[in-house]
Amino acid sequence: MANALTICRIMLSFLLLVPPALSPAFLGLYAVAGATDMLDGFIARKTGTESELGARLDSIADFTLAVVCLVKILPAVSVPLWLWIWIAIIVLVKLANIASGYMMQKRLVMLHTAANKAAGLVVFLVPFAIPLTGGITIPAIPACVVATFAAIQEGHFIRTGNA
User: Fold this and answer.
1) What's the pTM value of the predicted model, to 2 decimals?
2) Which is deepest, 33, 44, 72, 83, by most CB within 10 Å?
3) Residue 103's pLDDT is what?
4) How far apart are CA 48 and CA 109, in angstroms?
């Protein structure tokens, strides 16, 4: 059941490509995708069905949702250059973490740390805040701060063997 919800999140992510960015239909699909993210892990823990496959599927689903949202939302809003640079740096750090985790442990390493979960939550809320704040800048700042910390912490854990 948990893995089925995770797979639904991947499918919902691709469905987000259909409605206009930040439209009620987009935000509704996005909210359902977010609910699957909260429920899949909860169900896996409650039913004792946690698995390495489930964790990897969850990471893939999270990544897919994030990429689709970036592709869909960023062109629809006015993003200052400094914010593009900040997002690019976060992505580069995350990619370096994946590469170093693979080189060190010979497997895909994507940690589910408290900081990564907090970053996921704050980043998840950004699309809902954009219409309320009139742009992406105000909600993006706390999202980028938390995501930067999470990416740096994740890299530290991977490179010190605490993964």
Assistant:
1) 0.81
2) 33
3) 83
4) 22
